[in-house]
Design a protein that fits this description.
By secondary structure, the chain is of the alpha/beta class. Helix content is 40%, strand content 16%. The strands form 4 sheets. A 6-stranded parallel β-sheet has the order 3-2-4-5-7-6, sandwiched between helices. The longest helix is centred in the middle third of the chain and has 22 residues. The termini are far apart. Bound molecules: adenosine-5'-diphosphate (ADP), ligand TZD and magnesium ion (MG). Adenosine-5'-diphosphate (ADP) binds next to helix 11.
């Protein structure tokens, strides 16, 4: 409780009281008018404040902390430009289904609404609306508790998402009697209610699955978020269902599990007759569930918390709408009564494809070429990470993303954090910081050199807070590769080229971190081991052959087709 001698409090103090009462442990942000005192006061009541160099990274940190803790991550921004810098992260949180609240100070409503040119004046709430799951403004201190409760409920319930909460400068400094103010405070009851599907929906799903000769489960990050770890495992393992993990669902079951079909992805998509989606959308990442990669006769069972997701891309034969734990628990009960038929031939065919692909991958990984290519570098990374199976892996880039996802096995849930649904660059340092802060364990970030640049200044934040983050910059001198030529005659680099031979390791020395330059797999192995073991901020510049990357990594087909080359 915050009162001064006259038993008076104000919007700013009451806001902090409300956050504290609602269990907020950490705020990620950048301060300035009108929220600096809010951050100071939050610290004074025991809320951790992590100060960033750019709001987008603070927002990304809040978003991923929402995914990791199942509580809304909090991002604090200043008005207009700070708010807008954070908005990209809020939009990403919404599209990824991560619970987050961006709390922003805003300037004088009277001046903004008449467009009279206030300091950092912008109609923030209305701008936020299309990018957020919900947007609210608190105009009076007595509405703070309701505003916070609405934001928490909107962020957590159903499919989680990003919520915008606007705090006007006037509201922050409006006074209110402390006793009255305290009586307004409350915490929302059951903000993420259990959602149990109907028995009929579960029976319909089982009836379809019982017919399957070639079943396949696809596990998405909704399953990882839902914490249905045991139910997913029991469903897959007890029924011998082969599965594909989407990238942030890797580790729900270990990637080296006999039923994991990741290395036979093309084969299982082309042949599965019944696919059961567990918290995964049929968006571009799954080619919308149709087209040449899919068996044209495939039938879908979809488990999702959001009823409007069903049929979004193609007809779904058996929708099961509910939270995944409740839905799978019901399904497992039913399956006890009538077990599914086994599909030995299908499993054998998958194994054959997996073995053939594993042999091809082993050959790539044994490359001794110098400079290193993605595979020789990733072999070194993989050899080290096999000894640290319980640490976080953050990953972004194009070739760096796709190859790392395919080579590095994950063994535990929610440890792989990456570009997500939009394939966005710039999540790297924000995600690393929040993972280290909330997870209290080491983080390794495998970053394309371009990707790293989007949030690179946050290495100062990592050093300032002494976080156990080791960043490996896969430096191939560019976006996709570093060998493109300028097609004009002005002597500028090509659009994809970055500084040739840049030494990203030198950057972290400026802030007291540890730097390595790795030109061989052995050097990379040693540097990565030292970085993880030290628990100190470390940056490894990893020299990759500038010629080996391909345009847009594995999604070059999405580029517009140009008739002139
Ligand atoms: P991926 O990118 O891993 O394929 P998506 O983000 O596309 O995953 O899909 C996740 C899906 O999971 C979303 O449609 C979301 O509504 C759903 N989801 C989120 N939380 C839950 C939950 N607790 N139970 C069931 N489904 C959930
Ligand atoms: N801006 C944002 C915010 N997100 C994006 N995805 C892009 C731009 C476009 N883009 C990609 O899709 S990948 C990428 C960009 C700029 C960088 C790829 O280069 P990299 O990785 O150095 O990170 P590789 O290993 O060289 O492919
Ligand atoms: Mg690159």
């Amino acid at each position: 409780m915050t009162t001064d001698e006259k038993n008076i409090t104000d919007g700013m103090h009451l806001m902090v009281d409300a956050l504290k009462m609602n269990g907020v442990e950490t705020i990620y942000g950048v301060v300035g008018i009108p929220v600096t005192d809010l951050a100071r006061h939050a610290q004074s009541v025991g809320i951790r404040y992590i100060g960033f160099r750019h709001e987008q990274s603070a927002g990304n940190a809040a978003a991923i902390s929402g995914f990791l803790t199942k509580k809304p991550g909090i991002c604090l921004t200043v008005s207009a430009p700070g708010f807008l810098n954070g908005l990209t992260a809020l939009a990403c949180a919404t599209i990824n289904g991560f619970p987050m609240i961006q709390i922003s100070g805003s300037s004088d409503r009277n001046i903004i609404d008449l467009q009279q040119g206030d300091y950092e004046g912008l109609d923030q709430m209305n701008i936020a609306k299309p990018f957020a799951k919900a947007a609210y403004r608190i105009n009076r201190p007595e509405d703070i508790a309701t505003g916070v409760a609405r934001a928490i409920r909107a962020a957590l319930s159903g499919r989680p998402g990003g919520v915008y909460l606007d705090l006007t400068t006037a509201m922050l400094s409006t006074t209110i009697e402390a006793d009255i103010a305290q009586k307004t405070l409350f915490t929302p009851i059951d903000p993420a209610p259990q959602q149990t599907p109907s028995q009929k929906a579960v029976e319909r799903a089982i009836a379809l699955l019982s017919q399957a000769k070639k079943p396949l489960a696809i596990i998405g990050k909704g399953a990882a978020y839902s914490r249905a770890d045991e139910e997913v495992k029991n469903f897959i393992v007890n029924n011998n269902i082969p599965y594909l993990p989407m990238s942030m669902a890797k580790g729900l079951l270990p990637d080296d599990h006999a039923l994991c079909a990741a290395s036979a992805r093309g084969f299982v998509l082309a042949n599965a007759d019944t696919v059961i989606l567990l918290g995964a959308r049929l968006n571009w990442l799954l080619e919308h569930g149709k087209g040449k990669k899919w068996n044209p006769d495939v039938k879908f069972i979809q488990f999702d918390i959001d009823a409007t997701e069903i049929d979004s891309n193609r007809p779904i034969a058996a929708p099961v709408v509910g939270d995944l734990s409740s839905s799978l628990a019901l399904m497992l009960e039913e399956l006890k009564k009538k077990p599914l038929p086994q599909c030995a031939e299908w499993l054998a065919a998958i194994k054959k494809t997996k073995d053939a692909n594993a042999a091809k991958m082993a050959e790539k990984l044994s490359s001794t070429a110098l400079p290193m290519n993605y595979f020789s570098a990733l072999k070194a990374v993989s050899d080290v990470l096999e000894k640290y199976k319980d640490i976080y892996l953050v990953n972004e880039g194009a070739n760096t993303l796709d190859n790392t996802r395919n080579v590095i096995n994950m063994y535990h849930p929610r440890l792989r954090l990456d570009c997500g649904t939009w394939g966005v660059m710039g999540i790297g340092m924000g995600y690393s910081i929040a993972a280290a802060v909330t997870g209290k364990r080491p983080v390794v970030a495998i970053e394309g050199d371009s990707a790293f640049g989007f949030s690179g200044m946050e290495i100062e934040t990592i050093c300032r807070y002494k976080l156990p983050v080791t960043i490996v910059v896969f430096n191939n001198n560019g976006i996709y590769r570093g060998t493109d030529k300028n097609l004009g005659c002005d002597g500028d680099p090509s659009p994809t080229t970055l500084t040739i031979g840049a030494r990203y390791d030198k950057m972290i020395e400026a802030f007291g971190g540890t730097a390595f330059n790795a030109g061989t797999p052995e050097e990379l192995h040693n540097a990565l081991s030292k970085g993880i073991e030290s628990g100190k901020p470390t940056l490894i510049n990893c020299v990759i052959d500038p010629a080996v990357g391909v345009e847009s990594g594995h999604i070059g087909n999405l580029n517009p087709k140009s008739c002139v080359k």
